[in-house]
Structure formats: C-alpha cells, structure tokens
Amino acid sequence: MCALIQILDYGSGNLFSIKDSLNRVSPQLKVKISTDYEEGRMDGLVLPGVGSFSSAQRLLVKNRPAILRDVSTKKMPILGICLGMQLMFEKSEEGKGIGLKLFKGNVVRFESKQNLKVPHMGWNRVLLKKDAMDNSNFCYDLPASDWAYFAHSFFPEATDGNFINATTRYGNQTFPSIIQNDNIVGTQFHPEKSGDFGFKIISNFARAVISQAEKDPAC
Predict the structure, then answer these.
(1) Residue 219 annotated to the active site
(2) Are 33 and 19 in contact (CB under 8 A)?
(3) Rounded to the nearest 5 degrees, what angle is found at the Cα of 106, between the Cα atoms of 103 and 110?
(4) Active site annotation includes 120
(5) What pLDDT was estimated at residue 159?
(6) Which of 95, 164, 188, 191 has the most CB atoms in a 10 Å sphere around its CB?
(7) pLDDT digit string (tens) for the chain, length 219 residues
C-alpha cells in the first residue's frame, strides 16, 4: 500500500524541500509535483508557500471545484504552507481573486511601523493552545512553544478562534500561525525550513495521509 500526495505547483519556486521532507517520513509516501490536481486519486494535498495570492489564482480557478470536492467528500488531508494557508481564506489584500473559503476571514498586510520590518522574515516563536496540544492530530507531540521560520508580508485575520491552534506575535500584531478544521491544516511559517519542530508537523500530516490511504487505497 502506498499513499499519494500532490504538491500543487503555482510555477513560482523550488518545491523540492517540501517533497524531500515528506519522503523522509515514510517509504509509503509517493509525492508528485503538478499544476493539475488529480481529483479522486490523491490521498493528500499540499498548497506550498511560494508565490503570491494573485499568481496562484490561475490554478485555483482551474482546480478549486475538484479540490473542494475531495476535501469535503473524501476528507482528504490538505496542508497549506504560508501562501498556501492564506489561500484557504476568503480573499487577500495582496491581490485580486478569491481563496478556497475553507476558513472565514481575510488576509491583510502588516502595517509598516517604526522598527517593524516588512516582510516578517526569520525565526519567531509559535505558541500552541493547550486544547490543540491535547486534541489535534496535526499538533501531536509538539511543545507548547517553539521556534519556526517565517517569510511573509501578509497574514490571515481569522474570524473564528476555534480554528486557531497556535499564534505568533510580531511587533504589536498577534496572528494565527497554525490553523485547523478537521482534515484541513495551515501553517503561516515554513515547516520544511523549521527544523525538528516543523518536521513533526510534516510527519503528523503524512501520518494522516497514510491513514486516509488505508481507508481508500489508490495504489
């Protein structure tokens, strides 16, 4: 039995670090990078963090219905990273178009203030909520606080705090850094660049995908 994961390629950068991290988890995982989502065949999907909200619209328009059907009907695990997490919301100040609307809320830009550099780039602390540590399969075995690597100028303003698993503070702004709704998870940071902390999240996502594949084997 193998588990199929697709990384959706917006055509805006190197996605092999994500693929390599997934391949490290288990030989059961088969990972492909493609611009066309293969409805009904995938056990998991990654929306990567490279590019802009506007640049991703062409692929979202083409693939949105198929992705939403598999996320809803198959309960396929989906991981959004940085931009990929922002695409899970309704719309963004970064550009025209609409997101997948998997979470309510919009994506806004950090306010440029004295001593606050935008983009927010580098290592920052991720603070997990206790109920997420206790109940979230994607946050399994994570510490209450750890460091992760960020590179972004925009962040989501979530309207439902129940979906926020972790937060991060930058300047005077506290924003969601891990969100989850059942099989849907997003990280505002890059787990593939965040050492052991990030690799645990990728491993938890991979285990969810393998569990999904066991229910409905594709290969």
Answers:
(1) no
(2) yes
(3) 130
(4) no
(5) 81
(6) 188
(7) 789 999 999 876 668 899 999 999 989 899 999 999 999 999 999 999 888 898 888 888 899 999 999 999 999 999 999 999 999 999 999 999 999 999 999 999 998 776 789 999 999 999 999 999 999 999 999 999 999 999 999 999 988 889 999 999 999 899 999 999 999 999 999 999 999 999 999 999 999 999 988 887 667
Choose the catalytic residue: 93, 192, 214, 219.
192
Q: Which amino acid is at 46?
A: V
Of 38, 190, 214, 219, which residue is the catalytic one?
190
Distance separating alpha carbons of residues 84 and 217, to the nearest angstrom: 26
Domains and CATH numbers, the chain: 3-215 (3.40.50.880)
- Choice among 82, 94, 120, 139 that is catalytic: 82
